[in-house]
Design a protein that fits this description.
Elements lengths: L7 E4 L5 H12 L3 E6 L3 H13 L4 E5 L5 H15 L4 E4 L14 H22 L8 E6 L3 H4 L5 H21 L4 E8 L5 H5 L6 H8 L9 H12 L10 E4 L5
Parallel strand pairs: 1-2, 1-4, 2-3, 4-5, 5-6, 6-7
Length: about 250
């Protein structure tokens, strides 16, 4: 038996990077997976094809989760394809760094509307369609909520909000047997990090120098942590924040 046999999982923002790796890992553990995407249909289709090639079941579902109608659609399409939800992984998010004097309403809303409001919208819709036996919500936060780098005031604030929301919802949803936990990655060399040039240079050197393991993480390491929280191995774990950072504080 695989850890997630018979379970239905939704992974938001799963067309690339950490989200794609999570979708692949959950499918490998037996889950039927909805691969949500906002802009990269081709990326989501590749993830679905890779899951299918390994004998798993997955569908790609479009939806910008900052839009309440899209959040409803993603959940409705999940239930239509696979039935009640057991696992929701809130991975969709954006980041943009700026010093204080460069922060604008647009900079603020672009990140808060997806990273925080979108998480709440899709979670609120999904819990109405969870398996009556309960399930698991895993929110992908970030190590920045702890280390608070300079020039990241808005992004760090969104992830600190995700941490707080996770703690609140763990209490709120416990009577419905829905566990809520957060996974906070350190630096991971995803496509977005590489395109922003953050995978090398001073930022990476600083992180590696302050990390006991002396390296950045991998998408597979984040996916493995998520799979644990999604499984019955974590049946008594809720309201926790797991820092997958190699010891960075």
């Amino acid at each position: 038996m695989k850890k997630l046999d018979g379970k239905v999982a939704v992974v938001t923002g799963a067309s690339k990077g950490i989200g794609a790796s999570i979708a692949l890992h959950l499918a490998a553990e037996g889950a039927e997976v909805v691969v949500n995407y906002s802009s990269s249909k081709s990326g989501a289709d590749r993830v679905v094809a890779e899951i299918a090639a390994k004998g798993g079941k997955a569908v790609a579902v479009h939806g910008n989760l900052a839009d309440a109608k899209a959040a409803k659609t993603v959940v409705a399409e999940t239930v239509k394809a696979f039935g009640p939800i057991d696992v929701l992984v809130n991975n969709a998010g954006v980041y943009e760094f700026a010093p204080l004097e460069a922060i604008t309403p647009e900079h603020f809303h672009r990140q808060f509307d997806l990273n925080v409001l979108g998480l709440l919208l899709v979670s609120g819709e999904a819990v109405q369609h969870f398996n009556p036996k309960g399930g698991s919500i895993i929110n992908i936060s970030s190590g920045v909520s702890t280390i608070a780098p300079a020039n990241t005031a808005v992004y760090t604030a969104t992830k600190a909000s995700v941490d707080a929301i996770s703690a609140v919802l763990a209490k709120e949803l416990a009577p419905r047997k829905i566990r809520v936990n957060a996974v906070n990655p350190g630096m991971i060399a995803t496509e977005g990090v590489i395109s922003a040039g953050l995978h090398e240079g001073d930022m990476r050197k600083w992180i590696e120098s302050t990390t006991p393991l002396g390296r950045i993480g991998t998408v597979q390491e984040i996916a493995a942590a998520v799979a644990f929280f999604a499984s019955d191995d974590a049946s008594y774990v809720t309201g926790e924040t797991l820092h997958v950072t190699g010891g960075l504080r």
